[in-house]
Amino acid sequence: MGNVVSRSLTELLGEIGVWQATVLLLGISIGVAVVLEFIVLRSLLRYTKRTETKYDHILVEELRIPIVLTAALTGVFLLTQISSVINNVILTKGQINNFFGRPSLSVILLAWAFAANRIVNRIVDEVKGKDSRFDFAPIFSNIWTLVVSAGTIATLLSVWGYSISPLLGAAGIAGMAVGFAARDTVANFFGGIALYFDDTYKLGDYIKLDTGEAGTVVNVGVRSTTLMTRDEVLITVPNSILNAAKVINQSAPETRKRLRVPIGVAYGTNIDTFEELIIEIASDETLVLDNPKPRMRFRQFGDSALQYELFCWVRAPTQAVKVHHKLNRTIYKRLMDVGIEIPFPQRDVRVTTEDSTDAKAVSTSTDESISSNGDSDSGVKAVENNDTV
Description:
This protein is an alpha+beta fold. It has four domains: 2-127, no CATH class; 200-249, SH3 type barrels; 257-338, Alpha-Beta Plaits (2-Layer Sandwich), CATH 3.30.70; 349-384, no CATH class. The chain is built from eleven helices and eleven strands. The strands form three sheets. Strands 4-3-2-1-5 form a five-stranded antiparallel sheet. A three-stranded antiparallel sheet has the order 6-8-7, with helices on one face.
């Protein structure tokens, strides 16, 4: 390829002098770079600022520098390929290539690699918060950075005449060593990829692990996921653990959460009045959603109470504890105001002495007797009652 370029330029510029050819090539390169910078690219930047999407502006803005550098340095590189120029300078062909040709190609290569990496990273920053499909985009951004870096280094070595074949063999051996030494990191990396394709959670979701930790997902990285608890404490969980654990996503498929409030009411209570009162309390709570509507369910006949459960919905899982607290307070106050009894377990104990013929009762309830194991002359007998309302 280089010989073809050299012959073509020699035939094209062979009739003019060395200095004229040098000035001509450098002038054309610099002129093209100036036109691209001040006319074409700046006009495109002004136009892309007015478009609805930001992606075209990011593309033009990041490609601006490599395009201008490529146009400006192309003339320098082409000069190193003209035989008449090479034969009329004090430097050898190899020295010209090392001082001018390869450095110009290296700068162009680095500029394009940096721009390619920046384009992907900026697009990832734009899309990662807009849709749940892009929540793991930072992981692919990091992969792209690694690929671009490795490709750039390999290409630079090739430009400067170094063979990368031995490096590839050494890289394979080093890769196996690193794989064994950093198997946890590799497991976390692939765990993050698996979580992405499973669509387990996204940024902003409230999740709960089978180990008991719960919080809002605030960051998803290559190695780990960070949760913010209700105590405003950050918990960092390796992706490999999340991939193997049972994760309860309380924000999916909807962000709302159903709240269960258990309530016990005394036997003999007018259950119709009681149910209407509780529904009214839940409906009046501002944090409780109107749709679906709150409802009551009679669960069972308990030992001490009629067991009810109030079902209502809140906008987010993080509001559940606060709403539960407010409903409990309001229910207790309203039941006390209307005279509806809230039952509780009660224990009656009767104590008798052996010397007394009549039992001395502390409670009037009928209970079971429990004999004590005392060795003294005067024994004590205790009676443990049933729970009463």
